[in-house]
Amino acid sequence: MEKSLNKRLKARGLRVKVKTLTLPDAQPGSILEYFYTVDYAEGFVFESHWILNDELFTRSARFSLKPYRHPGSSLAVRWSWENLPTGAFPPKTEGFDHALQMEVKNIPGFQTEDYMPPADELKARIDFHYDSLIMGGDEKSYWKSIGKEWNSYLEKFVDKRRAMEEAVAQIVVPNDSPEVKLRKIYARVQQIRNTSFELRKTEQEQKREKEKTDENVEDVWKRGYGDGVQLTWLYLALVRAAGFEAYGCWVSDRRNYFFDPATMQSRKLDSNVVLVKLNGKDLYFDPGGAFTPFGMLTWSETGVRGLRLDKDGGAWIQTTLPESSESRIQRVGKFKLSETGDLEGTVTVTHTGLEAMYYRLDLRHEDDVARKKFLEERVRSQIPAATEADLTNKPDWSSSETPLVAEFAVKIPGWASNAGKRALIPAGVFTEAEKRIFEHAERVHPIYFEYPHEKFDDITVELPSGWKVGSIPPAQDQDKGVVAYNLTVENGKDSVHLTRKVKVNFLLLESKYTQRCELFFRE
Prior knowledge:
Elements: E1 49-51, E2 58-65, E3 75-82, E4 92-94, E5 99-107, H1 119-122, E6 125-132, H2 139-158, H3 161-171, H4 178-191, E7 193-194, H5 203-209, H6 217-223, E8 225-226, H7 228-241, E9 245-251, E10 271-278, E11 281-285, E12 305-308, E13 315-318, E14 328-337, E15 343-351, H8 354-362, H9 368-381, E16 388-391, E17 404-412, E18 417-419, E19 422-424, H10 432-435, E20 447-448, E21 453-462, E22 476-479, E23 483-491, E24 495-504, E25 508-509, H11 514-522
Parallel strand pairs: 7-8, 14-21
Antiparallel strand pairs: 1-6, 2-5, 3-6, 4-5, 9-10, 9-12, 10-11, 12-13, 14-15, 15-17, 16-17, 18-19, 20-25, 21-24, 22-23, 23-24
Helix pairs in contact: 3-7, 4-7, 6-7
């Protein structure tokens, strides 16, 4: 089985085409029957996945797969299953064509919840996987064979030592510290055109540009473009040429499922990163992920299992998980409160780490008008009142290192409400989004966040002349280990100063703890 170095896609998500059908005569109780055919290019073998439950109750469903078989092929199909419902049995080979068959009945509907693990990880499913017959039958020998094969392809791709040393000489100087060298090489690789994050070209456009398949890292360097996988391997070759001990790793992307080596499905290691040994520490890098900051990984590559490649078959590693402080949204507001209760002023929102990365990534193909609209709507959605927000600066959308800073002129009509001779002012400003999470009365799934993160608000409200503060909320300081909340309100001479911090420092919280976590956020 060949591990492709050139045709992997690095992106946060994929666009899906949807076909809509109009059924004017459909009535409640009608039975809808449909089928479709998908035609793939010849010469390719595709894995299959059966998802048994969907959002609606399924009374009966039948699945069938005729695996690819060819007398001259060394490929064989294997399958594994997860979360099979009661009464369901794994697929069996039936009939003269040896097709795999499975029938299920009375499958409960799938409940979608806020902040749950990937849906495909939780649903009942069957995963089919093609492997070469030469692979060993047990888990250990299987992965050793995989590791040796992948390492062989990788070493052929990066084995251009002289060309890489010449390239490194153009990037760093001898007296640079080791970390500075790693940073300079990282920045240089990220400057190279990354075709994985471009809009798809037609075949005619590709022919006009005469884009050839790169055969090794020297080709990528000379031509000045490559896909995300190639750029990450280029970084591996460059840091090795700079004198670092470094390894290529294939890790499991946790956007759609959680990896388990026991399933022996090599294609679930579907994202590549570079491991660098520095001062006794393992550092992980992914310059092929657009806008990924130095020293961080795309969120789906953090805290996951992976295979570090070497000539002996490799070894299992666990990628690091960033601290919550590394991915932060900080909102600093300076407001004036009018006699009529309107709040008006400026807000500066600073996104760092993965928080900045994903805004840049998601809006990379948008123009300034669309980006401005997005950021303004984002601010308005976080304030529990009708709000006017106007972006007043031009954020840096091109960098992966600098924070993404957005400045706004904000007006919130009717922020203060009259209560007799007093006026009531809400203690928090950016709290609307948090009120809408964990709305299910009875949660069934674990709580799952994509990555640890923090939100910090620093709000100053200047009061109208003659106004005085009668009372303020008491300070709060709750630290539950995996989550923390801090609130302080200070009464100034002519103003009120509020600071508020929410910290989430976990990925997955088991179902038995979710109720306590939900109460924490609701309070």
